Protein: SXP/RAL-2 family protein Ani s 5-like cation-binding domain-containing protein
Amino acid sequence: MNCFVAMSFNTSLFILIVAFSSLALCQKDEKKSGPPGHFLFGPSYLANLTKEEKQEYYGIFQNQKLTIKQQEEQRLAFAKKHGFEQAIKDDIKLKEENHEVVRKERPELIKNLLTVHNELMKIFDNKDQTLTQQEAAVSALRDKYPNAPATLYYISRLITGQDRRVKPHHKHH
Structure:
């Protein structure tokens, strides 16, 4: 049985808060890119476009025959035509910068996951501590390995099927 399943509600809630606060602190001010067909909360640079123009813009992403490079070129051409080329260039640059951060930092995070997992198991298996002491131990671990506890929490949610956004891959006979 997965040890995370047996955690108390307070501990689960604490780890959830840790996960979301960790994600919030790590994110940059990214521009939102609305899903195709959803115009209510798209990027601010699309605000002055007509519904048809927005559909044309999102159509670029829906064209499965375009390469990523071709999509970028078409986005830039569309943006230039409508006066927000710099915003698209900034989006592309941010995406490339984020990709490089992930390329650089993910291997270290992965390398530390087993160590952090083992430490978390020791913390949660220790029944001779108060909840405050447990939270302090998790906090100290998070200080040492900032993204690993949140990553492990997410993985545990996938394993236990508690994440509703991801469907378990069990075959039913």
Notes: Residues 8-34+66-148 form one domain.
